[in-house]
Amino acid sequence: MNTLIIGYGSIGARHAKLIQDLGHDISCATSNPSCPFRRFNSIAQALSDWLPELVIVSTPTAVHHASLTSLDKEGYRGATLVEKPLFHKSETNTPLKNRDTFVAYNLRFHPIIIRTRELLRGKKILNARFHVGQYLPDWRPGTDYRTSYSADKCKGGGVLRDLSHELDMATWLLGSWKRVTAIGGRFSELEISSDDTYSLLLETAHCPCVSVSLDYLCRKASRGFTINAEGLTVHGSFTRGTLAVNDREETFTTYRDTTYEAQLRALLEGRTENMCTYEQGMDVVTLIAAAEKAAQQQTWIEKK
After folding, report:
1. Using CA atoms, how far apart are residues 276 and 67, in angstroms rounded to an integer?
2. SS3 179
3. How crowded is residue 193: how many other Cβ atoms within 10 Å of its Cβ?
C-alpha cells in the first residue's frame, strides 16, 4: 500500500518507520530536508505523482484543517489518519468529501483500555478519574522544549490538546460528554505560551462524575485512571503496565510502539471499529473548546 505522510517531525517519523516495517511504501509531503523517504514539496504534487492509498496527517494541530482541505481539493478519496487532536479550534469543522477519516487516539489500542472496556460492558458506572503528568522539558531529549509546538499556543500546543488522549479515553469508555467545568492555564515558570495545567470535571452519557487532570509539570511521569462501577473498581496504570480489578492485579507487557503499531495494523487491514472516527474526534475538539470557555467564565458549559 502506498502511504503518504504529510509532515515529517517526530510523530511523522514514527509512523513512517512502523509502516515501512509492516511492508508498505512511504512518501512524505514535507519541507524537512532530513526526511529519508521520497519527498514532495506539496500535497498536490504527491497526489498527482504518487497516488497514495493511505494518508497520515502529522503536521502541527493548527495546520490539520488546511491539510484536510487540500486533500479534498485535490480529489483524494482514500483513508486518512489525522494526528490528535483533530483540529485546533472547534469552529474549523468542515464537511469533508472524504469521510473515511480517523483520528490517531492510539491509546484505544492499549491492552489496558481494551480490557477495561470489556470489564465495564453492561455495568452501571458511578464515577471516574483520569490523570496524566509529564515534565515538558523531558519529553524530547536533546531538543529545546521552548521550540516545540507543545510550547506554542498558536500552533495548537498546551496540555489540553497535547494530552487529549485522556479526554478521548473518558468519552470512549464512558460515553459522550454532556457538560463540563474546568480550571486551567499556565501556572508554572516554564517558558511557554501554552497552558501547562488543566483540571476538568464533567458528566458523560454513562457516568455522572468524571474528573480529568492534565499537566506538563510532573517530574516523575504518571498516567492512569480509576473507574468505580457497581461491584467493580478498575485502576489502570500505564506507567506500570498494570490493571487492578478489585483486589486482583493484571500485568500487561507493551513496548514503546505497541499502540501505534496496533492502530496502523487495524487501519491498514480495514478493522476500523475501534478507531476514533471524525465525529468522535470532533466531540473531543468541542469538549476542549468548552473546557477553555468554562475556565475563562468560571461556569459549567452544557453541550449543545
Report:
1. 19
2. strand
3. 14
Residue 214 corresponds to which amino acid? L
Strands annotated E in the chain: 2-6, 25-29, 38-40, 54-57, 79-82, 101-103, 125-133, 177-185, 197-204, 207-215, 222-229, 232-237, 242-245, 248-251, 276-277, 301-302
CA distances from 42 to 19, 39, 135 (A): 21, 9, 35
Residues 54-95: tens digit of each pLDDT = 999 999 888 999 999 999 999 998 999 999 999 988 766 666
Question: Has residue 173 got a pLDDT over 90?
Answer: yes
Bond prior to 60 in cis (omega within 30° of 0): no
Does the predicted TM-score (pTM) go above 0.85? yes
Q: DSSP 3-state helix, strand, coil percentages of the chain (rounded to 5)?
A: 35, 30, 35
C-alpha to C-alpha distance for 242 and 5, rounded to whole angstroms: 33
* Residue type for position 82: V
